[in-house]
């Protein structure tokens, strides 16, 4: 008799337990992915060499209170003494993940300090840290992959999907983003927040488009990042259908996730060395893995991490829908989502505004937004009008939090770049295209200067 037939499967209560909360804190965190770029050519910096990303990580890891993170002997990250983390994306982007903070103003104050210190540490190595949504000048064919065990696994997974996976390797390597995370205080609170975030994620994406280049030239899209996500395992990306239901609940999400195949299984050392048989996770609970064991709670956690939706549900709600912005405008991302998320009347108003939009209409709109940004439509309605109402609601939510003493007044100023987009109709993608047309020869230097984190 196999181990799988005698080991108990995870129960519904155990599957649900990873989302249950005892804390009523509502904190906010941010993850900023920055391309490591040569300031003159705009080209990506490789991992190896005396001035590469690996050497940069070694320098960071040598600082007081810092702790290195290795993957099968390769340095791939650093835990910082301020509670934040530095890690590498597959194509070499440097990601800073903050500790969570009680309000957006505190978060961005701490994040600004941390990012500028990281940029200063990069200066002796001759490269700039450049937030945004893409590597502007590096082609996919020229990507220099980070020696990470998960890189090969994920590339093999996307290759196995054929046409449905063709955007995956590009998504892994030459696009970047800025993501924010939020807490939930109960299963009911989780469902209420996630439903609104999922519904708002599509029109919000139009405000933030910022990836109009391919290998240093205009590519015909305002967000090739969004285009790649549409071609990167569509079953687990973009908007999850059940999250748009009026009766959405955690149990509906769990049922949906059980029908999705797991990609790779973790080992005790944290590495991901092999693909999992492509069957639904629910089947693995019954039949077990190829080695005869059944999934445990860590496997369930890993499976949830392999769902790359525009709102990813794990121990927080992670907003992944929008393109990254230049460093001077980064604070708009957590401010916008915090105003929509952490004020119940605002959530109710946003859901009323968006509840009739179907899953198919979201997907069609995402393609239209990737091409046309603010000129796109969703369910026959102009995206620009919906986006304007979402910004208005976000501001109302932030004002309510300020009045309640939960947020600082200066957070309202973080929304100004969004108001500029609405007022002019010009997105950061269009600013980038204008910069390119102004002087293609000097574009790499001009782009880095406009987006980079200042080294202080």
CATH topology: Creatine Kinase, Chain A, domain 2
What would you say the CATH architecture is? 2-Layer Sandwich
Main sheet makeup = 9 strands, antiparallel
Specify the oligomeric state.
single chain
Number of domains: 1
Highest CATH level, the class: Alpha Beta
Number of helices: 18
Could you tell me the strand content as a percent range? 5-15%
How far is the N terminus from the C terminus?
Answer: 64 Å
Briefly note the structural class of the backbone: alpha+beta
| Helical fraction | 40-55%
Rg over CA atoms, rounded to whole Å, is 21 Å
Count the beta strands: 17
Unreliable residue stretches: 1-5
Features of this protein?
single chain; 456 residues; alpha+beta; Creatine Kinase, Chain A, domain 2; nine-stranded antiparallel β-sheet; two-stranded antiparallel ribbon; 18 helices; 17 strands; disordered N terminus
Summary, kept brief:
This protein is an alpha+beta fold and 456 residues long. The chain has 18 helices and 17 strands. α7 runs parallel beside α14 (359-372), α13 (344-354) packs antiparallel against α15 (383-403) and α17 (428-438) runs antiparallel to α18.
């Amino acid at each position: 008799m196999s181990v799988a037939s005698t080991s108990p499967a995870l129960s519904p209560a155990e599957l649900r337990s990873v989302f249950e909360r005892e804390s009523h804190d509502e904190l906010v965190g941010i993850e900023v992915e920055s391309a490591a770029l040569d300031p003159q050519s705009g080209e990506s910096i490789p991992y190896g060499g005396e001035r590469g990303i690996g050497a940069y990580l070694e320098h960071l890891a040598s600082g007081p209170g810092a702790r290195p993170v290795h993957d099968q002997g390769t340095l791939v990250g650093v835990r910082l003494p301020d509670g934040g983390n530095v890690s590498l994306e597959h194509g070499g982007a440097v990601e800073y993940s903050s500790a969570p903070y009680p309000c957006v103003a505190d978060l961005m104050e701490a994040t600004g300090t941390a990012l500028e210190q990281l940029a200063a540490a990069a200066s002796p190595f001759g490269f700039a840290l450049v937030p945004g949504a893409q590597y502007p000048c590096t082609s996919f064919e020229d990507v220099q992959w980070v020696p990470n065990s998960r890189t090969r696994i994920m590339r093999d997974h996307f290759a196995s999907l054929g046409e449905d996976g063709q955007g995956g390797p590009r998504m892994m390597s030459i696009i970047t983003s800025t993501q924010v995370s939020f807490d939930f205080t109960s299963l009911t609170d989780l469902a209420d927040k996630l439903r609104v975030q999922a519904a708002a994620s599509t029109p919000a994406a139009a405000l933030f488009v910022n990836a109009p280049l391919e290998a240093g030239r205009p590519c015909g899209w305002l967000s090739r990042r969004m285009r790649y996500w549409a071609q990167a395992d569509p079953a687990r990306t973009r908007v999850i259908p059940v999250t748009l239901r009026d009766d959405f609940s955690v149990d509906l999400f769990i049922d949906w996730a059980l029908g999705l195949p797991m990609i790779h299984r973790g080992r005790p050392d944290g590495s991901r060395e092999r693909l999992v048989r492509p069957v639904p996770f629910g089947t693995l609970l019954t039949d077990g893995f190829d080695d005869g064991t059944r999934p445990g709670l860590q496997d369930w956690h890993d499976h949830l991490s392999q769902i790359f939706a525009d709102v990813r549900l794990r121990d927080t709600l992670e907003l992944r829908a929008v393109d990254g912005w230049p460093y001077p405008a980064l604070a708009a991302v957590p401010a916008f989502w915090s105003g929509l998320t952490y004020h119940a009347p605002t959530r109710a108003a946003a859901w009323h505004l968006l509840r009739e939009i179907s899953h198919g209409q979201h997907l069609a709109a995402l393609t239209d937004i990737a091409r046309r940004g603010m000129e796109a439509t969703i369910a026959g309605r102009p995206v620009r009008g919906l986006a304007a109402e979402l910004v208005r609601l976000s501001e109302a939510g932030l004002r309510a939090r300020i009045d309640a003493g939960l947020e600082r007044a200066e957070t309202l100023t973080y929304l100004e770049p969004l108001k500029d987009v609405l007022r002019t109709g010009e997105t950061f993608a269009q600013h980038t295209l204008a910069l390119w047309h102004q002087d293609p020869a000097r574009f790499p230097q001009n782009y880095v200067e406009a987006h980079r984190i200042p080294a202080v």
